[in-house]
Amino acid sequence: AMGRTFVVTVIAVLAVCLGFVLETDAVCTIKSDYGCYIDTITPRTLPNQVTNANSWEECAQNCYNAGFKGTAGTENGEECWCSSNTDAVGTLASNQNDCDKPCPDDPSKTCGGDGRLNEFKFSCSGTLSFYTCNGNQCLKDPNGPYLNPTCNGECTNPPPPSPPSPPSPPSPPPKSKKLKGGSVLLLVFFLGMCLPYFLFGALYMRFAKNATGTDMIPNLAFWSVLPGLIVDGFTFTLSLIRGQSSSYNKL
Q1: What is the per-residue DSSP string for the chain?
Q2: Mind listing the pLDDT tens digit for each residue in 207-216?
């Protein structure tokens, strides 16, 4: 009975492990090694770049994950390039030693070189599961970027939100404009003296002298000649400055 229980337990454990493997990873094998090929750069010999890889098998998985099932290639030690071609693509390098970058996870193979591709044909089977980060948790997501259930250890808590900025100080009240002394004197002169002079003078001329029209202006004769007197005064002053005349009667 104990032996039967042990066998059942082992079978159950193996089934769980096998199910985990099939769920979390595809098994990719290299079918053909095409050798070292020239990457023409413009256009690329293998046109589709996917996530970098540290071995041919990892590059095959990345291409399979991206929907490619043809020829793949590694370049410059870690770059992974894919195509839908079923045979080697491009021109074989005349010097196969140009592919001189060892694969980080499999130094027995080279992962291309500078402008050189190690091309190979691959085949994958199994079902891939994808994962994405949600905060510090790695969760299943059919559109996630990670094949590893740990999300390559890149899940971290999001940074705390930045504190709110302090409110801006209130703007100072607008300054009231105060009249200067000269403005006050002008207002007093015109409003306190000139305006009453003409107003009351006109009323006096109208009702006391029965004047009408322009005759209502008090001292009309004076105001009529005032502009000419002002001009004469300026002319006399300029004449004195220029040394042309010293007598006002000559104007």
Answers
A1: -HHHHHHHHHHHHHHHHHHHHHHH--EEEEEEEEEEEE--SSS-SS-EEES--SSHHHHHHHHHHTT--SEEEEETTTEEEE-S-SS--S-B-S-GGG---EETTEEEEE--BTTEEEEEEEEEES----EEEETTEEEE-TT-SBSSTTGGG---PPPPPPPPPPPPPPPPPPPPPPPPHHHHHHHHHIIIIIHHHHHHHHHHHHHHS---GGGGSTTHHHHHHHHHHHHHHHHHHHHHHHTS---GGG-
A2: 888 888 888 8
